[in-house]
Amino acid sequence: MPSYSAPTRDYKFLLHEVLNLSQYESLPGFSEASPDVVDAILEEGAKIAENVLAPLNRIGDEQGCTRSDDGSVKTPDGFKDAYQQFAEGGWMGLSHDPEYGGQGLPHTLGLAVGEMTSAANMAFAMYPGLTGGATQALLAGGSEEQKNTYLPKMITGEWTGTMNLTEPHCGTDLGLLRTKAVPNGDGSYAITGQKIWISSGEHDLSGNIIHLVLARIEGAPDGVKGISLFVVPKYILDDDGNPGERNTLQCGGLEEKMGIHGNATCVMNYDGAKGWLVGEENKGLKVMFVMMNEARLGVGLQGLAVAEVAYQNSLAFAKDRLQGRALTGPKNPNGPADPIIVHPDVRRMLMDQKSFIEAARCFVSWTALQGDLEHKSDDAATRERAGDYMALLTPIVKAYLTDKGFLSVSNGLQVFGGSGYVEEWGMSQFLRDARITLIYEGTNGIQALDLVGRKLAMNGMRPISTFFAEIDALVAEGGPDAVKPYLEALAATKAQLKEGTDWLVENGLKNFDHAGAASHDYLQLFGLTCLTLMWTLMAKTAAPKAGEAFYDNKLATGRYFLDRWVPEGPMHLAKMKAGADSMMALDAEAM
Amino acid sequence: MPSYSAPTRDYKFLLHEVLNLSQYESLPGFSEASPDVVDAILEEGAKIAENVLAPLNRIGDEQGCTRSDDGSVKTPDGFKDAYQQFAEGGWMGLSHDPEYGGQGLPHTLGLAVGEMTSAANMAFAMYPGLTGGATQALLAGGSEEQKNTYLPKMITGEWTGTMNLTEPHCGTDLGLLRTKAVPNGDGSYAITGQKIWISSGEHDLSGNIIHLVLARIEGAPDGVKGISLFVVPKYILDDDGNPGERNTLQCGGLEEKMGIHGNATCVMNYDGAKGWLVGEENKGLKVMFVMMNEARLGVGLQGLAVAEVAYQNSLAFAKDRLQGRALTGPKNPNGPADPIIVHPDVRRMLMDQKSFIEAARCFVSWTALQGDLEHKSDDAATRERAGDYMALLTPIVKAYLTDKGFLSVSNGLQVFGGSGYVEEWGMSQFLRDARITLIYEGTNGIQALDLVGRKLAMNGMRPISTFFAEIDALVAEGGPDAVKPYLEALAATKAQLKEGTDWLVENGLKNFDHAGAASHDYLQLFGLTCLTLMWTLMAKTAAPKAGEAFYDNKLATGRYFLDRWVPEGPMHLAKMKAGADSMMALDAEAM
């Protein structure tokens, strides 16, 4: 049975020391996030993750969700009680708008707790997670009345929410969407169509489920310009705002998936269901994408979260399992064999995980902080810079942390040898759960296209120019000896990324296929540069405190990253510069 | 429902054109393998794989095996009939010794059919696969009487076989083995102990199951020097050699695994079971390793096989799924969208798979041919060279093809987007099945240690010296323009491998941890060099036939490999040269 211990100490280091949140104490939300409050929230978040959610993770995988003929869905044993505890603890509203009952704390802090809940039980954490997404969408696009109607109960967790985009013939390409909305004449619409892969689409956790559904109003233009967003509650509210009449929508089936069995992935059938327009007609995608960008950070976080819990368990196994002797002589001479952590190749797998995870955690937190500052800073230049970074880095957080997170989990499983392949040890579940993160909220290939095709060119390439200039300044500033190797690696990686960026600008516009062909490796190189930057920031923070074990270990872990991750940069650059020719050479029929 | 079409055309290219098997027609086994016979066997093998085994793959995953309270095990519906067909078709004995009823054909050909059966149904193919391993062990170590008793029925498939090494506290480190053997006084031994993870350990496919069991004879030395091998049949043979009395051994449970559900992975309890010594006392590991080396080739082949079937299905999906428009303008203007194969990043995932698979197939075949020549050549120098290569390359075939095979399957799954995560499409099963290949028959970390710690130094570094010299000669020979880029890439990759080898010799002996720390990346670099060599050999064969579609496509696929795989070489070299210091820096308790 796998165990989980929340990385509270690491978050204190990041939030207090590296990001120094208290410097923003004059900003809304940050003012309430005093160091004491942050610590208390991290510690309480750790408790619910460790004690309430983690123990349900295996049972969630084993039992999955079950659908009855009437379309109702039962979650695994224990989920309902845990959800109630979670909602009553106020965890759903941690970083939501106080106007609607939230605590208004920084998202940066909310994501820290989010890592803990996702690591403890990813399938469970998706119920509040999707609710958070739907809340964001209503905040971004809903009318005052809609906000007042739905948000307070979603923020307490009394109701949950979902996002309904995908249809059988349309996933990435939402322009093909067919779900119809016909005006009822009373301000509402009749929504008809089938949506698939709706996470948390139907379940027994909450008193109502607020579906946000993309649909095409009768007579709207074809393609993405005719898509509107609707709020479609499972139970239509009565005049007092309480769940009343059952809406004509139903879970038509549950997907049998590789992982996240504890989350109900539903086929949702809308049969003239009553819905209300959110925002303007035909402008639904815009609202959906506001929320999607935040959701993408959350998926990157899941990649990190599952990597963390897999790492913890592989580390414990490696210390416990006795097998063979160290190459340099017995380390456990009185035992029958040495613990396998003495073997360099086992260390390699552990250090690959650890040095990735700690930088990834810093990267998510750093990016989330940009999201907070974009909305909350009182300085226009700060808001602009933060907005630029949030836009630029979100696809990288999503894709790089899930690509590498999956491989990290696979390393963790490998440390277990044959036990990693046996379900009862739990590593299989982590690998199976983690695999979805490369796919949903836009596949990682779509993230790479978003980066190369949109984010790079944004505002006359302002975001990436800022990024390069700030790295150059950091490098120019220098630092103590312990930080110098980090600065050198950062300068080298940044130079490769600059070269790759120039290559893209030069070639990607001449032939769009070159841009597409380079996008994956460009994103990987970008991700590597970001994590090298994060290690540099962490090293700068840790170096003055050398001599204390925590900081010494931090610096040692970072040096492993410099040795064993940074060499991937030139490879990605070489691959991207190979261009599209050999990639596109074969006729589809010849493949 | 996934489909499978055996790569018969590719095997004809490899066996007839690249390897030119008919040049060995004077050798035993090869003389029967005329081009016509080879083609007929490939085509018949394809039929049974496509028509009999592939249709049972999903059901095997869904149903798994079931154990009754009496310890008996039922395989999934259809497996028993399929097994009978498979055995009656003579497929179990294809490359086994004709003296015991086999057809004596080259293993090279046997492995070609092996790819087909493993791709079609990996879990099924393990029943004959393990039987083949047990057959090899008896051939290598058994007495004449044992061979005559067991082999003919194992070669017809009337009986199956297993290998029993692992115990709960001992996997890699067999020196810790505890299963006991006590002489019965009649030439037999009473075997007592528990073995775990015994593939095909109990089932309903065959009339008897011949277990080969490692155990320690009472009073034998501790560690690996006191391990003997025993043949322990499920049913003790009566005087006529027919299954008689039930032996006191039982399947105590089935493991619930991530994949290969159709294969019964058993806890085997031996309770004074009657067994007979195979080979000499305390020399059991030697026999087991003869067979294990061949089994490791077979696992590398599984990595390739699952990658192939995953590729085929992802290719079909990419041609069929309409989503978005090509970056360079619509390719399917009359349809609602273009097939996703027009998108460069989808191509990247497909070409990564295809260019790996074709080289991997060549590599397994090339290495298997060395195995045949080692045993069958009439020339001592050829036997020596072949034996050297077989020893040197086996860990690379096993680890590189399974590491990259798994990632290849993951790419295939990714092409499917969300459908890849849903069980009914079958891609999840391929990923789950493939994951075991990195673990069993010696984890990939153990393969890397075997390479660095044993195979490299063998015979005064003769194998690798030969390898380098032959590559140098090939490069010096030159070739037509179409082949030149291959030769350049091969020369570059070989130079990196040489540099890595020199680094290992220089540093690995001074500090064994350096050798261990470098082993993974060294093996990866070696694997990359081997596949680059294979592409060079294929390009040399294909270039004179340019103009014919098959050969043009081969050359184009290889160029993608040069562009997108070869750049990994310098990265592996840089990582390995980082050494052990940062890897081993942290105390275990600080991780």
TrEMBL record, chains A, B:
Co-factor requirement: FAD
Matches recorded under InterPro entries: Acyl-CoA_dh-like_C_dom, Acyl-CoA_Oxase/DH_mid-dom, Acyl-CoA_Oxase/DH_mid-dom_sf, AcylCo_DH-like_C, AcylCo_DH/oxidase_C, AcylCoA_DH/ox_N, AcylCoA_DH/ox_N_sf, AcylCoA_DH/oxidase_NM_dom_sf
Keywords, comma-separated and alphabetical: FAD, Flavoprotein, Oxidoreductase
Chain ranges of the Acyl-CoA dehydrogenase/oxidase C-terminal domain: 282-451
Highest rank taxon of the organism: Bacteria
Residues annotated as domain Acyl-CoA oxidase/dehydrogenase middle: 163-271
A Pfam family recorded for this sequence: Acyl-CoA_dh_C
Domain Acetyl-CoA dehydrogenase-like C-terminal: 467-587
Domain Acyl-CoA dehydrogenase/oxidase N-terminal: 80-158
Family membership noted in the UniProt record: Belongs to the acyl-CoA dehydrogenase family.
Protein name: Acyl-CoA dehydrogenase C-terminal domain-containing protein
Species annotation: Hyphobacterium marinum
